[in-house]
Amino acid sequence: MIQAIVKEMEINDFEVPEDCSSIYLGGGTPSILTSDELRLIFEGIQKQYQWKGDIEITLEANPDDIFPERLQVWKEVGINRLSIGIQSFFEEDLQWMNRAHNSDQALKAIDLAKEHGFDNLTIDLIYGSSTTTDEMWRSNIRRALDYDIRHISSYCLTVEEGTALEHFIRKGKSAPLDQEKAVRQFNMLMDTLAEEGFEHYEISNFAKPGFHAVHNTSYWKGVPYIGYGPSAHSYNGTKRQWNIANNMKYIKAIETGHLPAEGEELTAIDRYNEHVLVRLRTVWGINPVDLDEEFKAHFSGKAQEFVDSGMLVEENNRFILSRQGKHMADFVSMELMYG
């Protein structure tokens, strides 16, 4: 797989700038890679791209994969930001979510990362699960603050069709999700982190000043990017490309010098709808000046309806989700879309 990914860097000719502003190793579990495998990947990147200074290089890591030896290698290859999938500091939550790590490993992972000089950490926390009481959720937030975590990505647990959780709920083996509790816990999160000086710069992301995720922010602002590996997506403002999801088919195609990818040319409507979907989730909101003429009237009329209902606020010519609107972000986005 690693050899195929490196080979793809040579044959994937999707048009994006050669200058690199961030690197993100994620999706799947890159924290299991050996030092030799990581070095191969970075050698491949360095052959294709240039970057200046200390750009953000993020690795997604499971807590149970974090050991001193690996942390040292990550430092050596240039990784300077870790995204750790904590999810919860409580054993009952982790077991219910079927996570591989336990609560002790979650705490130790953060300790080890900090001991090895990783000060730029982001952790994932999940709220709304049937095992997470309000007090437990409050404790999860407080624990992250006590560890001086400067970036937190927090998501409401959702039930995807065909998953084990969906099956258990349908069979009555697990309680259905409590939407009122999810709303309450999201409010707790927003209130607590605001009091601690965090910026709520995207629906699910909170950061201390200076610690916004460069990579994710670029994505939300429509900066071109390229992805390598199975299922990886690339985007350059007018086109999108995505690789096949099947691992073996991906490897076999790359071995023959063929890129197993599909793509599409984005229409004006596609670009407008994606701009609405992505930007509305952020603190930067949507400025009608940035929209094509054919969509300005449609957007402004719909947006004003949501301002009147309290879902949006208008600040400096930008429409931004209100606190109430953050709970209904998907609905508001769908209503603002065209077609």
Compact overview of the structure:
It contains 14 helices and 12 strands.
Description of the molecule:
With 339 residues, this protein is α/β, with parallel strands linked by helices. It folds into two domains: 17-216, Alpha-Beta Barrel (TIM Barrel); 267-339, Arc Repressor Mutant, subunit A. It contains 14 helices and twelve strands. The strands form three sheets. It has a seven-stranded mixed sheet with strand order 1-2-3-4-5-7-6, covered by helices on one side. A hairpin with a 3-residue loop joins strand 8 (233-235) and strand 9 (239-243). Helix 6 runs parallel beside helix 8 (179-195). The protein is globular and about 55 Å long.
Helix content: 40-55%
- The average pLDDT score comes to 93
Number of strands: 12
**Strand order within the widest beta sheet:** 1-2-3-4-5-7-6
The name of the CATH architecture of the largest domain is Alpha-Beta Barrel
Top-tier CATH class of the largest domain: Alpha Beta
String of helices and strands: HEHEHEHHEHEHHEEHEEHEHHEEHH
Number of helices: 14
Largest sheet: number of strands, sense, barrel closure: 7 strands, mixed
What proportion of the residues form beta strands (DSSP E)? 15-25%
CATH superfamily of the largest domain, called what? Aldolase class I
CATH topology-level fold name of the largest domain: TIM Barrel
Provide the gyration radius in Å.
Answer: 21 Å
Distance between the termini: 41 Å
- Taken from the alpha-carbon principal axes, the silhouette is globular
- How many individual domains? 2
